[in-house]
Amino acid sequence: MALRIIFFGTSKFALPSLDAIADSVHQIEGIVTAPDAIRRGVPMTTPVRQWAHQKGVEVVTPPSPHDARLLKWLHDKGADLFLVIAYKKLPPQIWKMPPNGTVNLHASLLPDYRGAAPIHHAIIAGESWTGVTTFYITHGIDTGDIIFQEKVAIEPDETFGSLHDKLATVGARLVIKTLDAIANSTAPRHPQRMKSVKKAPKLTKAFCRIQWQQPAELIDRMVRGLSPMPGAWTMWGGRQVRILGGRPCRSGHPLLPGHFRVKGRHLEVGTGTPEYVYQVSEIHFSGKRPMATADAICGRLLAREGVFG
């Protein structure tokens, strides 16, 4: 049996899953995504909407999931199932609508890392494993019955960008496995345990600011877990500087936390671990493109020494 699906999503994390469904027996009847954002006067279309236009799939961009026109459009479509990947919270009148329910793909091993930023938080917390989960949407955020899960290792040098792409690929396979099981009436339902779980709240600007007095290992996880987006940041010379890459290094000449020095083609910053500095490899000055720190040093964009933050 092939399922007729309405897809809800916005980001490029959904694209491997959309490609996988397009190559399967299942049919995407329509797509719901966010309206275009305006940045510096230029409309910015979501990756999911771009995919829909390329494939000739009908797409709608309601201002809110509560929009009455969206409810009518969904009702008229009469789809078998709704699939959600990185979209807003849906009201019950939507997720209860299809006869086979509404399924979400989440980038963690639920119930851990419920919330908006599971990939970032797993790296920052120093986890060795994460994964993807498909589950049925219910009233609570990321709390519904689990269908399938697949584990993915977090490598020692993993960044948000690299882990995002791995999970998107693994997630696409899990989506097809889930759709096939639902179509064949063999999909399991495993209630999530209700004990204390790790959270993955939305990232704030304050959260992403580097606290140089923290241990070097934690600073490293912060930088990797926020690279390339939104980027861990600090202040220097009255402007914001994003630190996009680097590593902790032992130092024979300790620096106070936040104090930095240029050493050859390297930028070293003091941390809360006295015997370690954080050696910055990629940096992004406000108003400029991201660049290798060696290029910033050669271009004299950095003082020979100073203090961040």
Explain the overall architecture.
- 25% of the residues lie in helices and 28% in strands.
- It has 309 residues and is of the alpha+beta class.
- It folds into two domains: 4-183, Formyl transferase, N-terminal domain (Rossmann fold, 3-Layer(aba) Sandwich), CATH 3.40.50.170; 216-307, Formyl transferase, C-terminal domain (Methionyl-tRNA Fmet Formyltransferase, Chain A, domain 2, Roll).
- The protein has a seven-stranded mixed beta sheet, with helices on both faces. Strands 10, 11, 12, 13, 14, 15 and 16 form a seven-stranded antiparallel beta sheet that branches. The protein has a two-stranded antiparallel sheet with strand order 3-4.
- A hairpin with a 2-residue loop joins β10 and β11 (239-250).
- α1 (15-22) runs parallel beside α6 and α5 runs antiparallel to α7.
- It is elongated and about 65 Å long.
- The mean pLDDT is 96.
Spell out the key features of this protein.
single chain, 309 residues, alpha+beta, Rossmann fold, Methionyl-tRNA Fmet Formyltransferase, Chain A, domain 2, 2 domains, seven-stranded mixed sheet, 8 helices, 25% helix, elongated
Task: Please outline the helices and strands.
Blueprint: E1 4-9, H1 15-22, E2 27-32, E3 37-39, E4 42-44, H2 47-55, E5 59-60, H3 68-77, E6 81-85, H4 92-95, E7 102-106, H5 118-124, E8 129-136, E9 146-153, H6 160-183, H7 216-225, E10 232-236, E11 239-250, E12 259-263, E13 266-270, E14 276-285, E15 291-292, H8 293-298, E16 305-307
Parallel strand pairs: 1-2, 1-6, 2-5, 6-7
Antiparallel strand pairs: 3-4, 7-8, 8-9, 10-11, 11-14, 12-13, 12-16, 13-14, 14-15
Helix pairs in contact: 1-6, 5-7
